[in-house]
Amino acid sequence: MNISYLHGRQGRAAVAAISLPRLLPLIAAVIAFPYAAQADDDPNAAVELGTITVRANPLGKTADELVQPTTVLSGAELDRKRANTIGETLENEPGISTTDFGPGAGRPVIRGQAGPRVDILENGIGSLDVSDVSPDHAVGIDTAHARQIEVLKGPATLLYGSRASGGIVNVINDRLPVDVTDGLHGSLDAEYGSNGDSRNGTTEIGYGIGHSQFHLDAGARKSEEYDIPGSANVDGSGSQGTLANSRSQAQSGALSYGYIDGGNSVAFAVSTFNTVYGLPAEETAFIDLDQTRYDAQGILNKPLPGIDSIKIRGAYNSYTHIEFEGPGEPGTQFFNKQNDERIEVVHAPILGWRGVFGVQHDFRRFAGVGEEGFVPPTHTLQLGAFLIEERPWAYGKLEAGVRVERDTNKPEEGAALPNRNFTPISASLGSIFNIARDYHLKLYYSHAQRSPVPEELYSFGPHGATATFERGLNDAKIETANNFEIGLDHHDQRLSWEGNVYYNSINNYLYLAENDRGLNADGSGTPNSDGVADRVDEQGNFDPDSEIRLVNYLQANTRFYGIEGQTSYLLIQSPYTLSLRGFGDKVIGELNNGSKLPRVTPARFGVGLDGKYRHYSLNVDYTRVFKQDDIASLETETGGYNMLGFTAAYGFRLSEKALSDSEVYIRGRNLLDDDARRATSFIKDVAPLPGASVFLGFRLAI
Q1: Taking a C-beta distance cutoff of 8 angstroms, is the pair 100, 681 a contact?
Q2: Alpha-carbon distance values, 583 to 77, 152, 566 (Å)
Q3: What is the pLDDT of residues 20-65, one digit of tens each?
Q4: Alpha carbon 109 to chain centroid distance?
């Protein structure tokens, strides 16, 4: 691979700064506006609730029926927000942001939680990659094939274990079919983007006959270095007009088969994902990632008296990525072979209680080899058993659950590091109150424990992509989070809104922070605190002129608390439709002594308009991300920015038998060409987001 540099336009649109105190009245105005209009609504209007089933929950519920706050993207909304990474696709949902490491890598941040606290799933089974080890590692799932993306916000440890203490993201695609669609059907998508000369293409083909369903998909994308509205570095230095080393490309594909007989089914799939992307924090470094994955799923409908269903799922993965220092200069290699299996049994009501019980097994063989192999080869085993029950009662629904898990970490022989074993226990209790026909009050409490992962326990070495020298905490303890949540929502024909307030107290919280002691990485040297984050060389020797920051995994009692909400109102229903929507969120993450935690999502609000007339549709979005100055010691502030985007589309049907609409569209992002840097990113000071971008694309469906 040959990495070169392109230089594009410069300049930046002038945008008036909005101070944080203005956030609350703006959100209040967005939420309050529909109430004034609601006075003229028909009080007997029928309630229309979402009917999309959340497949991450085995009891077959919609997002509105779940006690735990849930976000679901699907259909046209998902197509409009779809981006190269899962984090970027979800970043404008309330309570969700992204870690952002250039165009190739971006993991979701849920209410300030990221990395090993957010579990990313594909069809209910882990992504089986190493994206949780470091923010520069890509998730091994191509968003191009997603048909639905589900986010359970807050601890989801009961179903998915210790790695889901901050939430889960479940990407649903068509690779494990559970229904037969007779005949040939498929789609072809293509898109061109002006910024970075990006080109994307995806195709999916299905064929159903009798009890059999076949599926084939393939996708490819490529982009050059993207344009930015000024300098790469926040201090005005670095590349100008174009972000150097921001090229990326990816290819993906899958072949699968399903046999379906009534409510019973069995399905198998093999899929591949390859991506090569530059690391903007380094001049020529890039990652070349390859993953091959095998999935299987079996579902039995009412196999025994008292059993509604049994679902068995499993996946095996072979993953490799090489971190090149430059073209033809391979450096550190990461290997991950992992298998994840789970059984879910849904039972019929017993004394009014209906629920699911099951077991999960996950075995991971991880190794990082090379100069930057900062985590030693480790075998990690997770065994868990869970039970979740629910029952209706006079005021709504009760829900309770528990999970017991055993996690073991065993470094390779000769690493001179201790084996660490943990037994996290998690539980939850919640209720939905139907306080009126259109209103629901949700109360939710969870006690979630999380085992430390190998990078938190055993790290010791330089990591060039983040420009850090990481030191693990060998004697780290189990994290224990107690999360309290209150939610209120309203739905009718014209008005929908929902809001949540949460408080999450976490004991023994593990986090990565800079030092100011003036010592070498091994603790030797003469202490010298000077108010500046310590720098070391690649061998860990103190060097104030180095670009490598010395960072430690630390453990302390913390709290995360915040508020989030969204609303939509149907302004005009006929002869065309026009809807107004808005959202806002704010999260605070701090130690119990009041000190702030690093890389916490800043406050945001957004508004949008959605219009449709016959085959034409138009969506306009504006988001304000505020300055982040509630920062940790030695962390840098992040300026606020504005994002303006739109999508205009024309939809049509190629035939009466087509399963979905075809369309042509034009889409714009960051049309104000603002200098935008995410506070959640390790490389925020050297890598802004892409400047103004326009995309042209089409989708053909048969």
Answers
A1: yes
A2: 15, 18, 4
A3: 333 333 333 333 333 333 333 333 333 334 478 899 999 988 888 8
A4: 6
Tens digits of residue pLDDT in 274-294: 999 999 988 899 999 999 999
Tell me the three state secondary structure of residue 81. Answer: helix
3-state secondary structure of 460: strand
Say if residue 338's pLDDT is above 90.
yes
Supply the pTM of this predicted model: 0.89
For the chain, count helices (H), then strands (E). 5, 37
Q: Which is nearest to 58 in space by CA: 444, 448, 388?
A: 388
DSSP SS3 for 687: coil
Q: Which amino acid is at 208?
A: G
Q: Which of 552, 594, 458, 501 is nearest to 133 (CA)?
A: 458
Beta bridge partners of 558: 506, 591
User: How many angstroms separate the CA atoms of 106 and 89, rounded?
Assistant: 9
Structure tokens at 1: 């691979």
Residue recorded with tokens 């779940």: 66
Q: Burial code of 109-139, b = ≥16 C-beta within 10 A, e = fewer?
A: bbbbbbbbbbbbbbbbbbbbbbbbbbbbbbb
**What percent of the chain is modeled with pLDDT above 90?**
74
- Report d(CA 201, CA 159) in Å as an integer: 35
In this predicted structure, what is the pLDDT of residue 461? 87
CA end-to-end span of the chain: 37
Separation of alpha carbons 568 and 2, rounded Å: 48
- Set out the domains of the chain in order of their start, with CATH numbers: 20-701 (2.40.170.20)
Q: Residue 37: what pLDDT? A: 34
Q: How far apart (Å, rounded) are the C-alpha atoms in residues 645 and 623? A: 9
Largest CA distance in the chain: 78
> Residue 23: helix, strand or coil by DSSP?
helix
| Rounded to 5°, angle at Cα 80 from 79 and 81 | 95
Q: What is the pLDDT of residues 150-184, one digit of tens each?
A: 999 999 889 999 999 999 999 999 999 999 999 99
Look up residue 455 and give its two tokens: 């990078």
Residue 5 has pLDDT above 80, yes or no: no
The candidate with the shortest Cα–Cα distance to 102, out of 284, 226, 251, 234, is 226
Residue with tokens 């660490």: 420
Could you tell me which residues are beta bridge partners of residue 487?
A: 442, 500
Report residue 686 CA to chain centroid gap: 23
- Rounded distance between C-alpha atoms, residue 280 and residue 3, angstroms: 12
Buried b (16+ CB within 10 A) or exposed e, 584-613: bbbbbbbbeeeebbbbbbbbbbbbbebbbe
Which band of pLDDT confidence, cut at 50, 70 and 90, is reported for residue 645?
A: very high
What's 215's DSSP letter? E
Q: What is the 8-class DSSP label of residue 41?
A: S
Report, as an integer, the average pLDDT of 385-397: 93
Three-state secondary structure call for residue 25: helix
Strands across the sheet with 167-172, in order? 70-74, 148-153, 167-172, 118-122, 125-126
Q: Element (H or E) spanning 459, and its range? A: none
Integer Cα distance of 642 and 15 in angstroms: 8
Give the mean model confidence (pLDDT) for residues 582-595: 94
How many other CB atoms are found less than 10 A from the CB of residue 555? 18
- DSSP bridge partners of 687: none
Q: What percent of the chain is predicted at pLDDT more than 70?
A: 93
Residues 580 and 497 sit within 8 Å (Cβ to Cβ)? no
